[in-house]
Each structure stands twice: as structure tokens, then as C-alpha cells.
Design goal:
With about 190 residues, this protein is mainly alpha-helical. The protein is built from five helices and two strands. This is OmpH family outer membrane protein.
């Protein structure tokens, strides 16, 4: 009796192992190179270009102030000997204060640009994640992994790489939505 139970137990465990193997083979998995997606996604490139233009526009007033300061500092060096040490000391203190003020303005501008850039990048990444989730569901994937900057895969066969497919569909969707926006802007 004990042998029969033991044989039955071994047979059940073998069957259970075979069922698990069958299930793991039927899983459909793929991976995406997330760094490549961000590098080649046309919407990200377009938004990045717009952000660079905005950054330059925001920086122009500060650049003008810096150039004026540099001209004034150069003028100070030329006039320091002519106007005497008391004038030089007073004017030097004023220039030092303005230099510190310009540095604070520059730091504030950089911080604002970093914050706005981060928000823009995060919104695009969130959009891409939602797209990949929907893409995975539509194509019947059980798992879609990510590689790139924050690698979660150390090795995978190239056959499982769907980066190009996802990138093509992302860019096609972006182009289609961009054309719709242009048409509505023309109608208005």
C-alpha cells in the first residue's frame, strides 16, 4: 500500500511538472529597448526641439544682462586707475553684488528649465508606457520587458526584440495625430 501511494505521488509530481513546462512554453514574451524608443520617437524629438527653442528664448534676457555686465566690468578695469582707489573700491563692490545677482538668476533659470524639461520627459514616458501596455495586450504578449538605461533584462534573443515594431507604430500614431491637429488649426 505504501509503495502504491509513493508511486502515485511520484506520478502526480511528474504530471504536475509537465503541466508547468507546457504553460511556460506558451507564454509570449518580448522586450523593448527603452533608450532607443526615446532616442528615435519623433514626438520626443519634436518636443525636445520646441523645448530647446523655449530655453533659448527664456535665456536671452539673462544673456543680455551678462553681456552688459561684462562690458561694465571691462570699463571698470580701464577707469579704475584714472578715477582713484575709492571709486574703484565702491564700483568693485557694486560689480561683485551684480555678479552674484546674475549668478542667482542663472541658477533659478536653470532650475526652472530642468523642472519643465523633467515634466515634459515624464509625460512622454508615461504616454509611451501606456502605449506599450496597450500594444502588448493587442498583440497577445504575456510580458513585455524593457532594456536600455534601466536594464531589467541581462540577455534575450534578438527575435524577442519588438522595439522597431513599437517605435514604428508610435511614430505612425504621432504623425497621424499631428496631421489631425494641423487640419483643425487650418479650419479655425
Amino acid at each position: 500500500m505504501k509503495k502504491a501511494i509513493l508511486i502515485l505521488g511520484v506520478a502526480l509530481s511528474i504530471l504536475a511538472c509537465n503541466k508547468n513546462e507546457g504553460k511556460s512554453e506558451s507564454l509570449k514574451t518580448a522586450y523593448i529597448d527603452t533608450a532607443e524608443i526615446l532616442e528615435k520617437y519623433e514626438k520626443f524629438k519634436a518636443e525636445d526641439e520646441k523645448f530647446k527653442v523655449k530655453s533659448q528664448e527664456m535665456g536671452r534676457p539673462l544673456e543680455a544682462k551678462v553681456k552688459a555686465f561684462q562690458a561694465e566690468a571691462q570699463n571698470f578695469q580701464q577707469n579704475a586707475q584714472v578715477k582713484g582707489p575709492q571709486w574703484a573700491q565702491q564700483k568693485g563692490a557694486e560689480l561683485t553684488q551684480r555678479e552674484q545677482q546674475l549668478g542667482m538668476e542663472q541658477n533659478a533659470l536653470l532650475q526652472q528649465l530642468q523642472q519643465e524639461g523633467g515634466v515634459l520627459r515624464d509625460s512622454i514616458i508615461k504616454e509611451v508606457k501606456v502605449f506599450i501596455k496597450e500594444y502588448g495586450k493587442k498583440k497577445g504578449y504575456d510580458y513585455v520587458y524593457g532594456t536600455g538605461d534601466a536594464a531589467t533584462i541581462l540577455y534575450a534573443k534578438d527575435a524577442y526584440n519588438i522595439t522597431d515594431e513599437v517605435l514604428k507604430e508610435l511614430n505612425d500614431n504621432y504623425k497621424a495625430s499631428d496631421k489631425k491637429e494641423e487640419k483643425t488649426a487650418v479650419k479655425k
